[in-house]
Amino acid sequence: MNNTFFNHNGISNEFVESYIKSNYRIIGNNKHSAIKPCHWLEQRLLTGRDNRNCYKGVFGIESHRCLQNTPSLPFCNHQCVFCWRDIENGSIGSDFSVKPDEPKELVDEMIRHQRNIIKNHLPLRRYLENYEVMLDIMCSMLNNEGPHNINSLSKYIHISKNKIQRALNLLKNQDFIRPTDNSMNFLKLDQEIRKSLNSREDLELLMNRELTSPNDIMRAHSEALYPNHAAISLDGEPLLYPKLSGLVYEFKKRQMTTFIVTNGTCPDKIESLNPLPSQLYITLPAPNEEIYKKTCRPMIKNGWDKIKNTLDLVDSLPTRTLIRLTAVRNLNIKEQFIEDYIKLIDKANSNFFEIKGFTLQAKALLINQRLKSKHPVQYYFPNYEYLEEIAKLFQEKSGFPLIYTNIPSRDFLFAVNWDENKDPKIKKP
User: Fold this and answer.
1) Phi, psi of 286, deg, nearest 5
2) pTM for the full model?
């Protein structure tokens, strides 16, 4: 247990402050819960369009209406080498050692804080202004062939470099503007756009058709104030929270779908969940016990046996299930492991199986230190191309059809106990 973050009154102010600095909102009297809007929520607010959505969009989840949360922020029984949390200094332990807050109060506070963040920290005016800045940039490039960079555009349009950068990112993503050299420092308007369009009005029509419009942005921002999905997955192991059934029930009462992401080490608690979430994610971090211990560094006994017990439960659960492999190159994802994974998944008979590359950000950048390895961090990072090859091999050897891929998230979704021709979107309550 990390005594820096725990005292006789429960979780300390130092712990709370360490997470607030990372843009978390700590929820509840006993400080064991939190929310944090993800990168994709803001991406969806930028345009309001479906193509700015996270990989969960395949299940019908809209990023701008997703409430990412945890009822077990400081508590986890794993210390996974790929974890982006500050598990060295920001984890308390594997037991839920504070008085649990009531689910109704938590859900009410989570929604209130989410709305506050949308209104005050991700305000509508930011995204409407971004729309105008994008138009200004393209007009500047249409009227002056350039080349242009952030500094020249900032001076010409009289807008801060940060705002220019935000607008440029979206325009480059859409290929409206392109680099003039390999360094990406200098930019120009796409040649086809330059040849075809003559005015700001023409550019606006193009933007409205292909990227976004003020109406799309306003609609998305309005919808974001009313989340309709709860991703119980932000931090820690949610099944350690003793009142998780009540939390799912409170979300369900508000007509919200729910995902729970668990590390699979609490089969008894999964068995007693009532109601179950709309979809249960179970992390399968390894093909065998040896790799499991190296990857997850468990703080409990018989962790691998507990994961296998959870896998044995999957087929009997009256809810949608997904087994996820969080992939770390040169550790738990190799061609020689594919057959072992197939045996485990085939026996579990989940609806879906997913290979998802671990996220190389925040404290996950310490992965080589956590493994006591001399290899650079990139040695463990599975890029899209590598995972695509693994996914093709997995499909070939397992017979499970690959039904969805997502390049930004490096995500590959297979149908296992699911008709590949059936829409995987979850029906709203």
Assistant:
1) -165, 160
2) 0.92
